[in-house]
Amino acid sequence: MKNIQDVLNGLGIEANNPGVSTGNIFWEGGAGSIDSVSPVNGAIIARVSMASSTDYSKVVEASKKAFADWKALPAPKRGAIVREIGEALRVHKVDLGTLVSYEMGKSAQEGLGEVQEMIDICDFAVGLSRQLYGLTMHSERTNHRMYEQWHPLGTVGIISAFNFPVAVWSWNAMIALVCGNVCIWKPSEKTPLTAIACQRIVQRVLQSNGIGEGVVSLVCGDRSIGELMAADNQIDLLSATGSTRMGKAVAERVGSRLGKCLLELGGNNAIIVTPGADFNVAIPAIVFGAVGTAGQRCTSTRRVIVHESIYELLKTKLQQVYGQLKVGDPLDEAMHMGPLIDRQAVEQYERTVQVIKEAGGVFLVEPGLLQGKGYESGCYVKPCVAEMSEQLDIVRQETFAPILYLLQYTDLEQAIALQNDVPQGLSSAIFTLNIREAELFLSSAGSDCGIANVNIGTSGAEIGGAFGGEKETGGGRESGSDAWKAYMRRQTNTINYGSDLPLAQGIKFDLE
């Protein structure tokens, strides 16, 4: 592993780094500090200053001032600057990916993959900067033309979660920037250092282009900063990623001021495995979906719904693969799974395991806390698989941990009903070689999730598709497709190029 101090130096993070930035000016936070603690070994990586309400107000004011100049740049020129951000991320990919893995605990490959997602969204946003299309419509009135166009909203607030400490921010920020908005980022207090690294990278690109402070801002702090953002009329759109509980609080606060919010919340994702499934495809998808990022993805596979005729065979296959999994230092490429984010997450894992046992669940692959050499942080757990006779309340809840539930079904309609019978609606998948089963799953009578896949797992998403879900997942969409419209306001325009003014309902005035 590269020395972590060398990684920080490569990213331009020096000692006593403040956590509040509007681009060119950094303020020392006035509300204490956050310790960035690595779940890999329990070490304190850095102490980051937290923003006070006064610091936050300064950032918002700088953003408001910056908006006028930034939106005046033609969209393709904004896109050209985002392209440079993507190039800078390419240069720093290894260092930033390593820091993501060390601060968050995901595998080295996943850390690099997360930075690659940032690069990919920059590429997507560059193309988008020339494709912010409106529509032209035929008017019912003679000598009139109608069309619609899209304008930037203003200040976009972004609240991100620890599990994707940089990628989800970039999904929002890069799209918002090419749309002409300015951004204020409140990262998870569990992963502040990766946020500061990103801010430094973007800051250098903006400075080289003569862009002043306030276009891209960072405010590190606790939940009080998020509460300020939710209540602030100066935040024109608040995009929040996190738990359903957090999302409900954000929606209530933003809704009380009739503001706009974009919510990406919890998932309780299921894979249906039919008798005709190709196990060589299904088994790797199930295992990666369940243990990738230690089960801490919103798209992690949490439930596998298996036809009764192949249930015993699938159990045997899963036991074989789970027996090969290696849990340890995520920066060691031989490891399949790293730690949970912190001891609080471990305690939640242990509580859930106990509830499963009390509910009559049978562990096909046993749970437990890993201890001893290499596990000193206390954040390493065993990925486990529990057989459940029915979909009990504990199964319908999201636990951010590598716990996989197995359920049986007899017919596909029952399987789809089980898949949908949870409060969340993010990602779903079916493994089948039967076209009728696949089409039913994708029909309006099938999955009720925002993402529905055939012969591919629930975990992960491509930049080109809109990402998000329904029900308690929040209904938001980020990244590809036409998700950019959430970051802009629609305006309908009518032009009268004639010499008279036809009025509604045939009303006329005698002006002679």
Descriptive overview:
- Residues 32-492 form the Aldehyde dehydrogenase domain.
- Pfam families: Aldedh.
- The protein folds into 2 domains: 4-265 and 474-492, Aldehyde Dehydrogenase, Chain A, domain 1; 269-466, Aldehyde Dehydrogenase, Chain A, domain 2.
- Helices cover 37% and strands 20% of the residues.
- The protein has helices at 4-10, 53-72, 75-91, 93-104, 108-128, 167-178, 192-208, 223-231, 244-256, 279-291, 311-322, 343-358, 393-396, 412-420, 435-442, and strands spanning 20-21, 26-27, 33-37, 44-49, 136-138, 144-152, 155-159, 182-186, 216-219, 237-241, 260-264, 269-273, 301-307, 362-365, 384-387, 403-409, 424-425, 427-431, 451-454, 466-467, 470-471, 478-479, 488-496.
- The strands form 6 sheets. A 7-stranded mixed β-sheet has the order 2-1-9-8-7-10-11, with helices on both faces. It has a 7-stranded mixed β-sheet with strand order 14-15-16-13-12-18-19, sandwiched between helices.
User: How many β-strand runs?
Assistant: 23
Task: Assign a percent range to the helix content.
Answer: 25-40%
Tally of individual helices? 15
Quickly give the CATH architecture of the largest domain.
3-Layer(aba) Sandwich
CATH topology of the largest domain: Aldehyde Dehydrogenase, Chain A, domain 1
Distance between the termini: 87 Å
Let me know the CATH homologous superfamily of the largest domain. Aldehyde Dehydrogenase, Chain A, domain 1
Could you say which overall geometry the principal axes of the C-alpha atoms support? globular
Tell me the major beta sheet.
Answer: 7 strands, mixed
Low-pLDDT regions: 20-27
The residue-averaged pLDDT reads 94
- Look at the helices and sheets and give the structural class: alpha/beta
Q: Largest beta sheet: what is the strand line-up?
A: 2-1-9-8-7-10-11
Radius of gyration: 25 Å
- How many separate domains? 2
| Fraction in beta strands | 15-25%
Q: So what's the CATH class of the largest domain? A: Alpha Beta
